[in-house]
Amino acid sequence: MGELAAEKHVQYILSVEKKKDSFESVVMEHLRMNGAYWGLTTLDLLGKLHTVDVDQIVSWIIKCQHDSGGFGGNIGHDPHILYTLSAVQVLALFDKLDVLDIEKVSNYVVGLQNEDGSFSGDMWGEVDTRFSYIAICCLSLIHRLDKINVEKAVNYIVSCKNLDGGFGCTPGGESHAGQIFCCVGALAITGSLHRIDKDLLGWWLCERQVKNGGLNGRPEKLPDVCYSWWVLSSLIMIDRVHWIDKRKLVKFILDCQDMENGGISDRPDDAVDVYHTYFGVAGLSLLEYPGLKAIDPAYALPVDVVNRMFIGRKLKKEF
Amino acid sequence: MASSDEENRQWIPFQQRPEWSDVTPIAQDDGPNPVVPIAYKDNFVETMDYFRALYQADERSPRALGLTTEAILLNPGNYTVWHFRRLILDALGADLHRELDFTETIANGNSKNYQLWHHRRWIAEKLGTNATSKELEFTKKILSLDAKHYHAWSHRQWVLEALGGWENELYYCDELLEEDIFNNSAWNQRYFVITRSPILGGLKAMRASEVNYTVKAIVAYPENESSWRYLRGLYKDDDHMWVNDPQVSSVCSKVLSAKHNFVFALSTLLDLMCHGFQPSQEFRDAVDALGTPDSDERGSDLATTVCSVLERVDPIRVNYWRWRKSKLFQAV
Ligand SMILES: [Zn+2]
């Protein structure tokens, strides 16, 4: 088993940002806001966030905001809740949320809640428990959760619970580790973890670990590094992470590194990308791998960033 | 299929098309960080530059529709292009059946794309029940290539609930499970059908026949996580019935005595005992036959022995089974 090639991963992330002319970055152009979140959070976990130009990134983010308050995936793209959360998360990393008109951003998110408590992704109305998480996480980070009907939002998420204890994208949808992360994360942030059948869900989640140590997202699917994050963070939030073999999972993630050029792939020997590099490093952080900052399993941001946002705020109020 | 070379030869740059001479293309603004001249594929760049121009001018015209077709073919993930396309379709009152065909073409390239499914739902919503059979056929086609396709299943469930078409759905689940009894998506759909179909009468009405079906599936492949969880789900609203139904305990016993792939049988037996099931000597003997327990456990109760066996045969989850064992003592 190799070590974490931290320095190589830093170089890889920085090089991706520079390669704007590559085919990948053109195809991904519309979701650059997500890419910024994945890349910058990885850099922060690796202790290298100071190597980027904060002002440049912040002014780009502001340019992606629409009059509605929502953010697009890049300049000139329509607003969507996916990119709105990424924008807020990146600004949180830099402690720059004060550049935002908080009421405007929160009004955009609040406007996406439907009568049944669910959330749409944008004005076109697609509904998915992913959007419930995104809305709740985003509003919590800007301290405006009180602007939505939390009880209805929670009830909708609970209505997506399945016989195996997991959650799907809509009521009756198959349990899937990615959706489970979203539902558990939203329930954690709203203080509703008691609505989960923790033992049943915990067992389903630990059944996701396969022989080579990796985790899959559904029964009989291949293991994938991104599920390290979704399954692990869910297990941590419901306090059942000791049910999996952590050592084997660490080895699986480390085996997915490109030791020469940096980056992490979905499975050993596949091509690396920023997305899996983020999920690999974030997963290792949850596994308390030495040298990495701790990451918060619900907000998907470094713990010190989350503490700054919530504890710092309480103190300010007191004074 | 045309090679990309051929495609390039057929492709005429917008600058050379007379019908586009009135449009000034707009390049992507990459923000305050001016980048070196971008070298992506030229047709891609030019198409997007013209798209930006029409999008900013909000030109909802037939040629704009054609342009979004080209842009989506080049990059089906670009959600802004899809959004604009819907505005154009609305403005033109376009034929939505033809639009279904277009999404099918895109799906042939890559069907794992949120935009495509979202667009498809938007069309089907407008067509209403006129779209039911087409949507069921479309998802069936996608599922024939990838039977666990998450988007396709989610679309299909939406079609059934919003537009109907439940008549053959249980039969469809049978078909898929016959192909692959391990298909968790098909088991999930089966549960969806028996609990939600307006024509089957719900879980209670379906329970007896579903238990029969599931027990057979379990006996054939006892290592199948999905069928065991489905069996438990059939008693979701009635733990008492689950503990006392002889079909449940007997399928555990059958699998245990075969001594192969018995992890889920053991864990089900454990769950049953935790809910008050009183095992017969037959169970004790079957579990003892799975291996000699540590000497200090000889004579301990059956639930403890079951946990010990599970710790041994499922070592990756040893902590889970240890926790289950510790809970037994807490209960006492
Ligand atoms: Zn992945």
TrEMBL record, chain A:
EC number: 2.5.1.60
Catalytic activity: geranylgeranyl diphosphate + L-cysteinyl-[protein] = S-geranylgeranyl-L-cysteinyl-[protein] + diphosphate
Prenyltransferase alpha-alpha toroid domain span: 4-300
GO terms (BP aspect): gametophyte development; root development
Cofactor: record remark: Binds 1 zinc ion per subunit.
An MF annotation (GO) of this entry: Rab geranylgeranyltransferase activity
Cofactors that this protein relies on: Zn(2+)
Family designation: Belongs to the protein prenyltransferase subunit beta family.
Protein name (record): Geranylgeranyl transferase type-2 subunit beta
UniProtKB/TrEMBL annotation, chain B:
Cofactor(s) needed by this chain: Mg(2+)
GO molecular function: CAAX-protein geranylgeranyltransferase activity; protein farnesyltransferase activity
PROSITE patterns found in the cross-reference section: PFTA
Reaction catalyzed: geranylgeranyl diphosphate + L-cysteinyl-[protein] = S-geranylgeranyl-L-cysteinyl-[protein] + diphosphate; L-cysteinyl-[protein] + (2E,6E)-farnesyl diphosphate = S-(2E,6E)-farnesyl-L-cysteinyl-[protein] + diphosphate
Organism from which the protein derives: Rhamnella rubrinervis
Family in the record: Belongs to the protein prenyltransferase subunit alpha family.
Pfam family, one: PPTA
Entry keyword Magnesium: yes
Enzyme class: transferase
Keywords carried by this UniProt record: Magnesium, Prenyltransferase, Repeat, Transferase
Superkingdom of origin organism: Eukaryota
GO-annotated cellular components: CAAX-protein geranylgeranyltransferase complex; protein farnesyltransferase complex
Lineage of the organism: Eukaryota, Viridiplantae, Streptophyta, Embryophyta, Tracheophyta
Biological function: Essential subunit of both the farnesyltransferase and the geranylgeranyltransferase complex. Contributes to the transfer of a farnesyl or geranylgeranyl moiety from farnesyl or geranylgeranyl diphosphate to a cysteine at the fourth position from the C-terminus of several proteins having the C-terminal sequence Cys-aliphatic-aliphatic-X.
Protein name, UniProt field: Protein farnesyltransferase/geranylgeranyltransferase type-1 subunit alpha
EC numbers on record: 2.5.1.58, 2.5.1.59
